[in-house]
Description:
Layout: E1 7-12, E2 15-20, H1 30-40, H2 43-46, E3 50-55, H3 74-89, E4 95-99, E5 102-104, H4 106-112, E6 116-120, E7 124-126, H5 137-147, H6 149-158, E8 162-163, H7 164-170, E9 175-177, H8 182-194, H9 198-211, H10 216-229, H11 238-245
Amino acid sequence: MTNPPPITLAHADGVVTVRWDRPPVHVFDRPLMEELTAVLRSPEVRQAHVVRLEGAHHRWSAGLDVKDHRAGSLPPMLRAFRSLLEALWEVPAPTVALVEGPCLGGGLELLGACDLAYAASSATFGQPEVRLGVLPPFAIAQAPAEIGLKSAAELLLLGETMPAARAAELGLVNRVLPDEAVAGEVERAVATLRRSRRETLVLLKRSLHEVVAFPDRALARAEAVYVQELMALPRAEEGLDAFLEKRPPRWPESPA
């Protein structure tokens, strides 16, 4: 029995559905990021009227592969993730996310590059990177403008996993619906978009993005802090080691 392809496209009347599948919780490693980037830059997606995004098996994504956060693989991982986010951000048509299951770390950053997001009530959200002693550069660059400084601080500094209702309060998703109703709401939103002229949607989306421009400078600065300063600290990978070894981290004591 062959495994399903990690990325699939489905076409229906101008709507392209992009679905990723890396069981059990769709953790993104570099090959998967690169494949999704290529799909998002494909003619099928670039010419779509509406693009719908979702994870297979009713799960969005639990984030990026923890092993790729180590110093040796960190710069190429960040480059691959930035390319993925830029490819998603630059899709001309509106992008609509169906969020079920975990939406954590890089999965939540990926969601932040979508235009519309609808979540199942059982979905969970969070940026837990701080608990592993690392940083989420895109969230640092984007979240303050998207949800406000105080909410961004709550999300990033506490690193707690929150329910979908709290994610909606913070503005991370548009709406939360019962698990059995969320797919129908996404279909309704997609159908509403499909009734509008594509060229108008493309120009409107471009105008919105020009008002809140892709945070290139902020993202580059956050990545530099991560790679050049954080990873230069003593025992910078302690949180990653602890996660992979399934034990509590033993942080170096801060100087008095």
